[in-house]
Predict the structure.
Amino acid sequence: MIKPQNIIAQISKNVKKMQWKCLVDGCTETAINSHLIQRNGLLSNISVNGHLIEIKMVDAHKWNSKEPPLKFSLVGIKKRPIS
């Protein structure tokens, strides 16, 4: 029987590899998160000392059923792939 963690890990791996079409009108490139949110606009208004709280999925190979599959981490605005 396949463990749920292995199934989640494979799905996550496949999604990360996918090439998504950019959703911005007039842009025909592959999506690279470059049009998301401006650093000096909304992000600077909701950040604390230049940082945001990011929610990420826990690595499915390290996940156990006694803990939530998500983790919160503090990320600097300049570290995010946005413009």
Summary: The first strand starts at residue 51 and ends at 57. The chain has one domain: 4-79. Strands lie at 51-57, 70-76. The chain is about 25% helix and 15% strand.
